[in-house]
User: Which sequence fits this backbone?
């Protein structure tokens, strides 16, 4: 197949088929992080994110913000599994020119976030590269009863997001707070059936959750919270880099969560049977197919 | 300080000073891998390596070989601690054009090596990038009694290498076998005081071992095994990408190892007191300072 016609999802499927893992791997390719058997009570989580200049950030951004974002993306993946991060490795490729100033700023931003979430930076790699390239790998952990996969959504579950969506590209994508605390609170107090973080837009990530869960879904224009940064409702549906949690839970649990005070979780729709597809109800009560127009990395 | 005047070692020191780690970290920045407390008997190892097109390989190389090398570099780091690899994450940035063919070959080479050493590939990340960029993160494990740091060398230890050196850039760097089995054999049968893998040339990596151990060393031209690929003795000293183990052990252990049949470990010199420095004895019995001319990544 010519490579410009193959989607990121197809490529990942193609790779997954070739990969064999051993019995200690609870979940490999296909969720926000890998899930590995560790102790009697806990699983280990393992995730890596690569950020590339002019794709994930530009050199006009503050080095502090680039360092913050690089770690925050991986922590967001750990949050999406209901886990807590523990250790990080930082690989950095960059030009020699300006490297001292960049590295000082980059690590200041990264280490501030690491401290906030008690992550130990335990090593990494430094290479020459024309464009700045960053890879952060994180080991985390999760109680076995607390782990949440993207594949567990069930028809009649209520769908929630952890914050308003859209407009992140205008700046918020560099400074967002990964929803570690929110996820921790959720999995310790509620039965969450499925969860992921919205990195590539609600429409695309909802599709991923539905595909993994073999389910359909409906979301309501009236209910989807739109960020003050967004220039249109479409940005809340498709723009990406929101890094909010998207999760589903049974109706009784959802009722309890909605009544809770002092937390921001917004119900936006419902999980349906697979044959229903993924739909969107407009303010005028029109039912439309929700097309996945989110950001495709590849 | 202007960045062109700062060395890789200085930059890593600068970063290390800012990093705080918690009590579960036995060893953070500064060795071949991080060492983390895990179970009663074992430590966990955690390492990442970034490879960049036109620095670590060119696009003329077979995708199979690039995939092999990318994983082999990280496995070599695990070997250098005396450990066994368990899980890997693969981050890959590349142009869309030709991606299917490249990914098929890249994963074929990578997964062949993973299978050989029972490594489970459990996930990764796929991004667009003009140049090909790869980051492999590996989790490994090591028995607590078997772990070897680069900092444990003691005066009068004998220095060994696990294979002939030099000329790797002419091709071997793409196809080398990481010394997992050799390291495993060593730490299970001998008391090894210090070890690392020669990634940047014997002269530079011996300096790293001596700096970490607060020691000096002497090596002999007559003893250093030169690869058939090498065009000069200088290449065996300085060229890099040999990925052989460099290690030291007490004299009595060394005698035992030298008498052993069917293994390739070659004594090349001795650890000395720090004030002696790092010296090199020529075939004509001249004592020279061994300058670190190995490859500096940055």
Assistant:
């Amino acid at each position: 197949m010519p490579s410009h016609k193959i989607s990121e999802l197809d490529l990942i499927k193609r790779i997954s088929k070739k990969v064999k893992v051993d019995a200690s791997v609870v979940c490999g390719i296909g969720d926000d992080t890998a899930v590995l058997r560790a102790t009697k009570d806990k699983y280990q989580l393992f995730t890596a994110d690569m950020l590339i200049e002019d794709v994930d950030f530009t050199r006009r951004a503050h080095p502090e913000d680039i360092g913050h974002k690089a770690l925050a993306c991986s922590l967001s993946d750990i949050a999406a599994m209901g886990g807590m991060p523990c250790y990080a490795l930082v690989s950095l490729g960059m030009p020699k020119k300006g490297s001292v100033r960049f590295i000082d700023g980059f690590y200041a931003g990264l280490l501030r976030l690491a401290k906030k979430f008690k992550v130990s930076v335990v090593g990494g790699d430094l290479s020459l590269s024309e464009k700045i390239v960053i890879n952060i790998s994180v080991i985390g952990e999760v109680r076995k009863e607390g782990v949440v996969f993207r594949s567990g959504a069930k028809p009649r579950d209520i769908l929630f997001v952890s914050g308003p969506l859209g407009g992140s590209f205008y700046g918020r994508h560099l400074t967002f707070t990964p929803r570690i605390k929110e996820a921790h609170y959720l999995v310790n107090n509620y039965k969450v059936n499925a969860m992921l973080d919205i990195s590539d837009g609600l429409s695309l990530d909802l599709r991923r959750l539905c595909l993994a869960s073999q389910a359909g879904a409906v979301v309501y224009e009236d209910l989807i919270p739109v960020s003050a940064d967004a220039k249109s409702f479409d940005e809340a549906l498709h723009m990406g880099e929101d890094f909010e949690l998207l999760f589903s839970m049974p109706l009784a649990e959802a009722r309890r969560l909605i009544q809770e005070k002092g937390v921001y979780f917004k119900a936006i729709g419902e999980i349906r049977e697979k044959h229903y597809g993924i739909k969107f109800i407009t303010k005028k009560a029109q039912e439309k197919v929700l097309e996945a127009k989110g950001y495709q990395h590849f």
Observations:
- Chain B touches chain A through 72 residues (CB under 8 Å).
- The domain at 158-289 of chain B is CATH 3.90.650.10 (Phosphoribosyl-aminoimidazole Synthetase; Chain A, domain 2).
- The longest helix of chain B spans residues 63-80.
